[in-house]
Design brief:
This protein is mainly alpha-helical and about 260 residues long. It has a single domain, classed as Alpha Horseshoe (Serine Threonine Protein Phosphatase 5, Tetratricopeptide repeat). The chain has helices at about 5-25, 40-45, 50-60, 65-80, 85-105, 110-125, 130-135, 135-150, 155-170, 175-180, 185-200, 205-215, 220-230, 240-255. Helix 1 runs antiparallel to helix 14 (about 240-255) and helix 6 packs antiparallel against helix 8 (about 135-150). The longest helix is centred in the first third of the chain and has 24 residues, at about 5-25.
């Protein structure tokens, strides 16, 4: 990573940690003695941005739902909050937890989506060359395809598939992406549009789908309009607030004012 990108990344992390601090200041904490070990407590910790606590509580449950939430918590923490030299550890743990969730509940479409998401975040962290060496492109695609086979109406599965196509094209270019991975812009658009159709009121789906459209064409006016619409939605939890901040940062680098 060059010095300019490193400074930009660290600046983004500082900004997102400030967002986290502000959100935590508004959150109402629950006593760990009140409902220790419950999925509700883990979900509350996640919503409040206490991602490490959420992961610990959820993993201790040992259930597929707990493992999925633990994986999601560490994935969010590793991507948005952790220092650069710590992110790899959290994202690797997220992959391990999501893999355990898939093994525990192989017929759960959501488990496969969590696995794809965890691998995708780690792929972003290690870079396209290392991700290719680890076979991450195929792993993400396989997990997303399995999720769609299990539940064709799962918005998150379509989002994952659409972002995969867009990401491969962004990394390799349309020709190589199609030749090596059978990735295409048409497929990316189809899945992203379907995700937004299935969950039109989801801030996360809208922001992530619109960002995928921008990856394909950073001048796409509709994508920017969709991002502005997503930014206008309330954040339901700290994770969405962090995504919100990341999107604003991206728009600013593209010269758009939210």
């Amino acid at each position: 990573m060059d010095h300019g990108k490193r400074r930009q990344t660290e600046s983004g992390r500082v900004w997102r940690r400030l967002v986290l601090a502000c959100c935590l200041g508004l959150a109402i904490g629950l006593s760990f003695d009140a409902r220790a070990g419950s999925l509700d407590l883990a979900q509350t910790a996640f919503a409040e941005g206490r991602f490490i606590d959420a992961a610990r509580i959820a993993e201790d449950l040992g259930t597929p739902a707990g493992l999925m939430l633990a994986a999601q918590s560490l994935q969010v923490h590793g991507h948005f909050i952790a220092q650069a030299d710590q992110a790899d550890r959290y994202l690797t743990q997220a992959i391990d937890l999501a893999t355990r969730a898939v093994n525990a509940a192989p017929e759960s479409a959501e488990a496969h989506v969590h696995l794809a998401a965890a691998i995708g975040r780690h792929a972003e962290a290690v870079g396209s060359f290392e991700a290719s060496n680890r076979g991450y492109g195929e792993s993400i695609r396989d997990a997303a395809e399995k999720a769609l086979a299990l539940d064709p109406e799962l918005a998150e599965a379509h989002l994952t598939m659409g972002r995969w196509h867009a990401g491969v094209i962004d990394a390799l270019g349309s020709f190589l992406a199609g030749m090596l991975y059978d990735a295409s812009e048409d497929a990316a658009l189809e899945h992203l549009e379907r995700a937004m159709e299935l969950k039109p009121d989801s801030k996360t789906i809208l922001l992530e789908s619109a960002t995928g459209l921008l990856i394909l064409d950073d001048g796409d006016a509709r994508a920017r309009d969709l991002l502005m619409r997503g930014i206008g939605m309330d954040s339901r939890n700290v994770a969405e607030a962090l995504l919100h901040a990341e999107v604003i940062e991206r728009l600013e680098t593209l010269g758009s004012n939210p």
